[in-house]
Amino acid sequence: MSTASNPNSNSNIAKTPAPPYYAVIFTSERTDGDNGYDKMADRMVELAAEQPGYLGNESVRDSNGVGITVSYWESLESIKNWKENPLHLAAQRKGQTDWYQSYAVRITRVERQYFL
Amino acid sequence: MSTASNPNSNSNIAKTPAPPYYAVIFTSERTDGDNGYDKMADRMVELAAEQPGYLGNESVRDSNGVGITVSYWESLESIKNWKENPLHLAAQRKGQTDWYQSYAVRITRVERQYFL
Question: Which Pfam families match (chains A, B) (predicted)?
Fold first, then answer.
């Protein structure tokens, strides 16, 4: 196991640097139907990756519509800037009205990590 | 939206208290086949919930075998105690040899949260 950056070169697991850095844990329950969700979700993943301070992303959704997405960031400021991005704000509003039954957003500071 | 504890009473989303508290983000890629995994995974969820300082759990795995489990804890000490639980240590060893192609464990401090 390694405590520094992720040694796996071909993986769904984000290749994060040594801590400290920040993680946003987004846990959600989707409403029924697509309603434009998939296209917007793909666009948001692309757009997030273009933002200053972006370090990586991990995302899983199961067949019951429960999902966890974790995005990794260099700083709280980079998270705040992404939260306030105009296209992202529009997506957040659609999320609240159309796409999610419920969600939790948790802003966290990564203290330690290890990898297999 | 609420910034305090999760208002959703019937949900897959953990009912965490107001921050600060701690989150362990476990992202993993399974090997093929069950090999006793499902039974042990259920047992570990039950056992974790019995530990001092446990606050909740969220877990998703998709059809490709990629999973994210986040467990929530009162303190770093409660996380350390759970990591060193003998039954959990045995499960961790099986995870490294049999169940996971790769994983990341990230120990984080939750600074802020909000809910829909």
Answer: ABM
